[in-house]
Amino acid sequence: MATVTPSLSLSNEICEKIAVVGFNTNMISYLTKQLHMPSTKAANTITNFSGTASLTPLIGAFIADSYVGRFWTITVASILYQIGMVSLTTSAVVPGLRPPPCKAGEICKEATGGQLGILYVSLLLTALGSGGIRPCVVSFGADQFEEGDPKRGTKTYKYFNWYYFAMGASMLVAVTVLVYVQDNIGWGWGFGIPTIAMLVSIITFVVGYPIYRHLDPSGSPFTRLLQVGVAAYKKRKVCIVSDSNLLYQNRDIDDPISRDGNLLHTKHMRFLDKAAIVTEEEKVKMGEELGKPNLWKLSTVHRVEELKSVIRMGPIWASGIILITAYSQQYTFSLLQASTMNRHLTNSFQIPAGSMTVFTLLTMLITVALYDRVFIPIARRFTGLDRGITFLTRMGIGLVISIFATLIAGFVEQKRKHVAFTHGLIDHPTSIIPISVFWLVPQYSLHGMAEAFMSIGHLEFFYDQSPESMRSTAMALFWTSISAGNYLSTLLVSLVHKYSSGANGENWIRNDNISKGKLENFYWLVTGLQVLNLAYYIVCAKFYTFKPLEVQRKVVDSSKVDELQLVNPV
């Protein structure tokens, strides 16, 4: 049962990924060729949508952790997603909901405000749906492993690996089969297939309800964090105690939010410890009220450490933003590059430009499989760690690989433009340049390898280091780093387009003809930002403090006494 229920919960995520990647991968083609948007506006529309879809998980996580639990959050969010997909499919099928096709010798008519409105509402609904699915599915699957299982830690890190593998496999289907359907059969079927897939996933997920392990929501985590901050501020003039054993603890209050065990006191951010100092007045008042404290004035050590854990995760969270900024270029400018290059495999068949991300996904899948089956067993012999290496090391490796991905992308763009210039095609943006699209494979593949290290490590980090009552929220933090990365890409593109403009229409990023721009400079700018980000990450990782957790495990003997074990994950 323990292996079946995580698999059933993943079916929803797999279909969601087929749906979102099915139109996101090739969306720039839909926006520029069907709705006739300028390329910079289309690129920013995609990154804005991706950013919003990665920001809404904060809402879904809050609802799941505070009120209804993960199952019902996933279910309702999936229905919202389904409505958005139906709307998007309808807009692609009904001719009046998109501008007329371009006619030879005439300026293409852009989509009207009403047509764009339908598009944006559809994307908003899918973004809201993603907000309930993304932070809850992965933590809901991990919840299916019992806390008392001694192999739970090993099972969860394997689960994260194979969660990402399943997600990558579904994305692979999207960037091959669905992109081919969109380019060669039509956008109605291209959007319709993932719409049907999403409906199937909802049914599959709901049917599994009786066999899932359901954990009750434990109240608003944001309220608890705020209570600690308020209590610490109110006691800002109180002297810090020298003995941490004098700080307030109450297992009855903390039990609903600490099934895995209470967080132990750490010496960092000692100002927050003031929230757990019991004053003489509070001792008297708690005696009168049968030991019930006012949590806005007095917090337990566990709750104080919850806030410390969230704060400590912040710098590591931020390190993932630049990587996503680099990664997102695959769906915008790398795709535009591919559309100008020779994509023929045979005389009659050519690779759709949107399907080039297949190399990212294939590399990611191969890397995940080799990491789990080959790398971890070898690394385990040297480190003694069940997971082979720490998730912080894994993330650092991913950041290094990503630097090489954007560095190489700049050199490939120089090569592409040189061939265009040599053949006199630099002034012909619609002509196919006689250079193989496979020149782009290294940058796509390196991004896939970087994701297998950085993104999975990031996901594992958030689940492991977050307070257990905030795991949906922690998964939302993972997606908000993706959101911030996409928004930063939008900002970066806008700034570069504005400030790199010169006389005679010169610009690093040209709307009319990328071959006459200097896209390689943009890639190298991103490379430079990643180098700075790596240095920042190394400092953050070096000084990061893992959360210390007191785990209660039942000892099977005549005494029936609980054994307390200190866990400090590495």
From TrEMBL:
Domain of life of the source: Eukaryota
Ranges annotated as spanning the membrane: 162-181, 187-212, 310-329, 349-371, 391-412, 432-453, 474-496, 522-544
Keywords of the record: Membrane, Transmembrane, Transmembrane helix
GO biological process: oligopeptide transport; transmembrane transport
Localisation per UniProt entry: Membrane
GO molecular function: transmembrane transporter activity
Signal peptide, first to last residue: none
Membrane disposition: Multi-pass membrane protein
UniProt keyword annotation of Cell cycle present: no
Keyword Transmembrane helix attached: yes
Gene Ontology CC terms, in alphabetical order: plasma membrane
Chief location of this protein within or outside the cell: membrane
Gene3D superfamilies on file: MFS general substrate transporter like domains
Annotated SUPFAM superfamilies: MFS general substrate transporter
Protein family membership: Belongs to the major facilitator superfamily. Proton-dependent oligopeptide transporter (POT/PTR) (TC 2.A.17) family.
Protein name: Nitrite transporter
